[in-house]
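Think of the structure tokens as a kind of shorthand, similar to the way a musician reads notation: each symbol stands for something richer, in this case the local conformation of the backbone. In the example below we present two proteins back to back. Begin with the first one, reading the sequence and then the tokens, and try to describe in your own words what changes along the chain.
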Amino acid sequence: AAQDGQYLIYAICNSEPLVRWCLSHGARVSYPDADPNLNPPLTEVIATRGTVAILKLVLEHGAELGRRTLHRAVEGAASSSSLERRGPKMELVRFLVEELKVDINLMDVPDGEQRPNHWGTPMAYAVPVRQGTADQGATVVEYLLKNGADPRIKDCWGMFDVYGLAERMKNEKVMEVLRHFEAPKAT
């Protein structure tokens, strides 16, 4: 059920048939006057709970990618409790990176802004996952590194890059991936 102030399509965005029904009955896919804390861009919510098919559907209906759409897809893939559950979430990450060409190093806030619970680049969202996840986000981090993600970019507070965040969160599996990664030389 939708929470107070939340649009119905946000509550059902993990069900393609329900999203189709809502769209066929006039549901909007963007809410420019909505409180971004209560109703972030729909594509960000779908990146967390939906599928590539649902994301494509709302994009076809005029939805725009939110600043943290890739961040949320990475977070969803990294926090999956099993490899089987991670599959559809990794498909979203791949779709955003390979097909839509979303900036793999995009900060989650505009330059100069600082917000709580904003970790920085999409890769940073793979790090603070709970114990018991499939591999603590290591597979997602490895994929992002292979596709050009830069682990040296610091968060909006200027405190932690992915190396520091992984160390702070004691994420051993991500730290292992980072140890084997050779950062590209600065030009």
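Once you have a description of the first chain, move to the second and do the same.
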Amino acid sequence: MIFLRSLEIPPSSPPQERVFPSTLAGAFTGAAGGAVLRGRSNIIPGIIMFSLFGFTGQRVYNALDASPSSSSSNPTLPIPTTTTTTTTTTPSSTASQPSTNDAANQPLWKRILNSKYSPMKVLSDEQYGHLLREKLVRVDAEIAIVDEEIGKVKAMGDEKDVDRGDQVKA
């Protein structure tokens, strides 16, 4: 029990100190899982693999945790810069791709989502509202087309009823 207490890491500790306990926890998990699920011969491979998983997972977590994040306690304001050259861009190209200065200050998950290879994209409230308005216009157009088709079918049905009425009277 004293050994386990010595492994307890306070939350204020640096991230490098959390790697060893995660690796050790992975080793114990691999040993237990290998022994219970796969037999005695799989204890050593379980220790090796799960300690690598613990080590790698903690290192990746530390790297992602250290990346810049957009927290409300530390807002970053854009610094206006003046340039002598002028460039023209279309509004659609500037809305879909963040500038290089903004990309460096964004957290990793936003940079991944905003990359051109990602099937998803982070949208602002204005972009989302515009997207919803476009979809609403498309749905309204489809409803209008369906209403026209219904009117045509009713008109054809009325013509058939008139023809049937003439046949019955004759």
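Compare your description with these statements about the second chain. Confidence is low (pLDDT under 50) at residues 70-95.
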